[in-house]
Amino acid sequence: MPTFTSRRALLLGVPALVIVAGVASAAWMMRPPPSDLDLSLQRATDSGLYVARLAPETEPVSVGPMHSWTLTVEDRDGAPIEDARIMIGGGMPQHGHGLPTAPAVTEALGDGRFLIEGMKFNMPGWWEIDLSIDGPTGADTITFNLVL
Ligand SMILES: [Cu+2]
User: Fold this and answer.
1) In this structure, are residues 107 and 128 in contact, taking their beta carbons and an 8 Å threshold?
2) 11 and 66 co-located in one domain
3) What is the per-residue pLDDT across 110-143, written as a single tens digit (0 to 9) for each?
4) Cα of 37 to ligand 1 centre, how many Å?
5) 98 C-alpha to center of ligand 1: Å?
6) At residue 101, what are phi and psi to the nearest 5 degrees?
7) What's the structural domain count of the chain?
């Protein structure tokens, strides 16, 4: 029966593919991050509208536990941004996957500080944290690098 055959091929083929991909990617995933990565956690956003500073709630940042960060946003003159729509994304560029959680700003703490909750890194290596900041002078983006 064609249906049975194709289902069986799928049932056998998918796990085999997963295993092959897993073995192949193990070496791939061990690659060191680029040596010229900017690991600074305070920088101007891509179009220069804001200066963003990221600080983890506890240092060093470790692989595993869910934790929070504080993001501080200032305009280019150093004035704190009190009201902005902030979206958080990211992932591991060398592994082709995103963040394992969906972190979000849950509170404006004042003085341009925003609480980011729900951050988690589930493996060692190079992580990117992508922020989009939509504030009073416009929308801008920035990507921070983190090596765990
Ligand atoms: Cu990864």
Assistant:
1) no
2) no
3) 999 999 999 999 999 999 999 999 999 999 999 9
4) 17
5) 8
6) -125, 180
7) 2
